[in-house]
Design goal:
By secondary structure, this protein is an alpha/beta fold. It is 35% helix and 15% strand.
Length: 427
C-alpha cells in the first residue's frame, strides 16, 4: 500500500494554552481563553522558575485555545483524510508557555515520540511497510510554536519530521515583548490588571525569547547598549520589580534577569544557526502576515540620570505595505510581529510567503473586521485560505481551483521567490 500522510502536531503560540492548578480538587483554571487570567497564580518562583511563586500549587497545561485553533484542526482532520480510506490523526500540543523554550522542546520531543507510537496502533499506518520502517510527523507552529519547532529540529536530527509549517513566527523577535515586559500591555495578552500582569511578565522566561534581535532593531543614543539581550539595554524599573519578587531568596533580581536574558539569547543563536539541506527547505512552509499596523522600531534614549528609557510612542507603529518603495514597504507586519522579525534566518526571505488581512474570504467578514482592529497575528490560523494552503502543502497537491496564493516579501525579485509549492502571486 502507498505511504499514508504523516500525522500532524499543531503547536500554539505564547499564552494560547489553558493552564490549570492541579493541586486543587477539582483542578482550577488559572488561565483560559476569555477569563481566569490569574496573574498571581501563574507568576513563577524566584528560587526556581520551574515552580510557582504562590505555593502550594501545581500549574500544568491543558489544550490550545479552541477560539483560535479549533477550525484549523478540524479542517486538517477533514482535508488530510479526504482522499484516503482511513483518517490522518491531528494532535494539538498544549504546553506551559511560561517556561524557557529549551524545556518545552524536550516535551515536544516526547510528544513526537508518543504520537508516532499512537499512530502505529492504527492499522493503515502499521500495515504500511514504508511508514512502519520510517515513521514521521508533520509539525505546524503558530507564533512561538514555530520557535519551538526550530529549536526541536536544531536539537534533534529531524529524521522523525516530514514537513513543517510556521505561521506568524517571530524568528527574530517582536517589539511587543519589550512592551509587555515594560508596561504589562501588548498584543500577547489582555490589558486587565496591568500592574499584576507586568510583574508576572517580568518573571516569565519564555517572553524574553520573543525579544527583537534583528539588525538595527533598537535606535539608541550614542554610547548606549543596543543589544536587547544585555541587561544594560533595559530600563532600571524592570530589574527593580524583579528585585521585589526575589526579596528574601538567595538570588538577586539582577542575576535572575541576566539569566532569563541569557537563556533567550542562547536559544536565538541556536535556532539562527540551524542548518537545513535543500530538501528540508522545500519541506518548510513559512507564512508571515503583512499589511497591518505594527511596531517596527524602538527608540531608546538616555534620561537625566544617564540610564536607558524606552520611548514607546505610537510613532513607531507603521504599515507602509502600499508604498512604491520596497525599503519602505518592509515597514509592516501582522500587528504583533514586524516583517523583519518574521524572516527565518535559516530559510531566508526568498522562501517566505506573505498574506494580508484582505485574504480573508467573503464569508469571513467577522474575522476580516477583527483583524482590522486587533491585528492579523492571532487570527492568521483561522484564515480559510491559509487552511487550504497548508493542506495543499502537506498533501503535495496542485491548485486545481485556483484558491490559494501568496505574496513576495518586498525586495525579493520575482525570479528569486522560492515558496515550497507552486503558488499564484498576488500583488
Amino acid at each position: 500500500m502507498s505511504r499514508p500522510t504523516s500525522p500532524v502536531i499543531v503547536i500554539p503560540g505564547i499564552t494560547a494554552s489553558d493552564l490549570h492548578d492541579r493541586y486543587e480538587l477539582p483542578p482550577e483554571a488559572v488561565w483560559t481563553t476569555m477569563r481566569n487570567r490569574r496573574y498571581d497564580r501563574i507568576a513563577l518562583h524566584p528560587a526556581d522558575t520551574r515552580y510557582e511563586l504562590r505555593e502550594p500549587a501545581r500549574v500544568a497545561p491543558g489544550g490550545p485555545f479552541p477560539l483560535i485553533y479549533e477550525n484549523l484542526i478540524e479542517e486538517l482532520r477533514a482535508g488530510l483524510s479526504e482522499d484516503q480510506p482511513d483518517p490522518v490523526p491531528v494532535y494539538p500540543f498544549g504546553y506551559d508557555w511560561r517556561m524557557p523554550l529549551d524545556r518545552t522542546e524536550e516535551q515536544l520531543a516526547d510528544c513526537v515520540a508518543e504520537v508516532i507510537e499512537r499512530t502505529l496502533l492504527l492499522r493503515h499506518y502499521r500495515d504500511s511497510a514504508d511508514f512502519a520502517a520510517n515513521p514521521t510527523v508533520s509539525l505546524i507552529g503558530h507564533s512561538m510554536g514555530g520557535l519551538l519547532i526550530a529549536g526541536y529540529l536544531q536539537r534533534s536530527s529531524g529524521i522523525r519530521v516530514d514537513k513543517v509549517v510556521t505561521l506568524a513566527t517571530p524568528f527574530q523577535g517582536s517589539f511587543e515583548a519589550i512592551l509587555k515586559v515594560t508596561t504589562g500591555t501588548a498584543d500577547f495578552g489582555d490589558d486587565a490588571g496591568k500592574t499584576r500582569e507586568r510583574r508576572a511578565a517580568r518573571m516569565t522566561p519564555a517572553l524574553y525569547h520573543l525579544l527583537p534581535g534583528f539588525e538595527n532593531a533598537l535606535t539608541v543614543d550614542d554610547g548606549m547598549e543596543s543589544d536587547i539581550f544585555r541587561p544594560d539595554a533595559w530600563q532600571p524599573s524592570v530589574v527593580r520589580t524583579i528585585e521585589e519578587q526575589v526579596d528574601g531568596w538567595e538570588v538577586s533580581g539582577a542575576e535572575l534577569f541576566a539569566q532569563m536574558l541569557g537563556w533567550a539569547k542562547d536559544h536565538r543563536e541556536r535556532i539562527s544557526a540551524l542548518e537545513l539541506g535543500e530538501d528540508r527547505r522545500k519541506d518548510w512552509l513559512a507564512i508571515a502576515g503583512v499589511d497591518a499596523k505594527t511596531r517596527v522600531g524602538l527608540r531608546v534614549r538616555r534620561d537625566d540620570k544617564g540610564t536607558p528609557r524606552f520611548d514607546l510612542r505610537s510613532a513607531e507603529r507603521r504599515n507602509d505595505w502600499d508604498s512604491d518603495d520596497d525599503h519602505a514597504r518592509r515597514q509592516t507586519g501582522d500587528g504583533t510581529v514586524p516583517l523583519e522579525g518574521a524572516i527565518p534566518p535559516f530559510l531566508g526571505e526568498s522562501r517566505l510567503v506573505c498574506v494580508t488581512p484582505g485574504d480573508f474570504g467573503y464569508w469571513e467578514l467577522r474575522d476580516r473586521t477583527l483583524a482590522r482592529f486587533t491585528g492579523l497575528h492571532g487570527l492568521l490560523p483561522t484564515m480559510n485560505m491559509v487552511h487550504r494552503l497548508i493542506l495543499r502543502f502537506l498533501l503535495g497537491k496542485g491548485d486545481r481551483y485556483g484558491n490559494t496564493w501568496g505574496r513576495r516579501p518586498p525586495g525579493v525579485a520575482k525570479g528569486e521567490w522560492q515558496p515550497p509549492l507552486m503558488l499564484a502571486e498576488k500583488e
